[in-house]
Fold this sequence. Notes:
The structure holds two protein chains of two kinds. Chain A is mainly α.
Amino acid sequence: MSSHSHHIIPFRTLVATGIALTILTVLTVGVYYIQFPDPINIIVALSIALVKATLVGAIFMGLYWDNKFNTLILLMAFLFFFVFVGITLLDTLFRDPSIIIY
Amino acid sequence: MAENAQVKASHVQHHFASSDQQFDSAKMGMWVFLFTEIAFFGGLFVAYIIYRTWNPELFTLAATQLSTPLGATNTLVLIASSLTVAMAIRAIQTDKKRQSIILLLSTVGLAMVFMIIKAFEYADKFAKGIAPGAYYTYEGIAHESASVFFSIYYMMTGLHALHVVIGIGILLWMAWKVHRNHFSSEYYTPVEITGLYWHLVDIIWIFLFPLLYLIE
Lengths: 102, 216
């Protein structure tokens, strides 16, 4: 375990990750100006964001080389978030129209 | 146990068996803290999702008030700062203290650029009367709950900006401690953990940017 937690990330890997993140940022802005129709634009933008977040987590935060338990903690955080979103939407999407929303 | 016979390094607390065990525990503790941070921001993301499903047209109308070039610039600034902090950790892992200090201070510099751009964005909106909640007076958006979008915008970006400010403080503290020879390739846990925090702040912005600035 210790050999994993003290992994020194190669300089080239760090720079390549930085360049990849920059390209993905340019791509997401470029796609925005193309103006895809409604559901597709959100899906594309969030997919690119997810790839970027995965790169930051795996390389910059070192999860790729790290004890997998830490990755599990991160995945659990996202799982709980989706439970939070799902259960809340079960209420807010199916409300009686007579209830005033703000 | 054979390990106990070894002389522990000075940075190892008495309740840890080894430096590696202490390092792994600290790092896992930080990940648990990051879990709570995701839950913290998660509440605001849920608010965003609910209000967007209720008022989809409001979000596309109101987002035209946000500057995509400034948001994109800030995204690139934060990505660059994530790279510099990752390289600062690499530098201290290889005992390059001077390089580590320069990279930590570069991260602080980039964080300040982010905050200055954010300040210009906020000032531009306040000048128009786009203020949070009850202080909203702008009439350029033809929607009855226009202020709702900006309340969510200010809460999300404001909480994120608070994290950037706290990050600046911690990064300066780390640079100072490297300067005072507190860290080396043997012991650099606080620098590593500060990096984890800073990368999470970057990840939050990676999601905030398309959700707030890239909707049409």
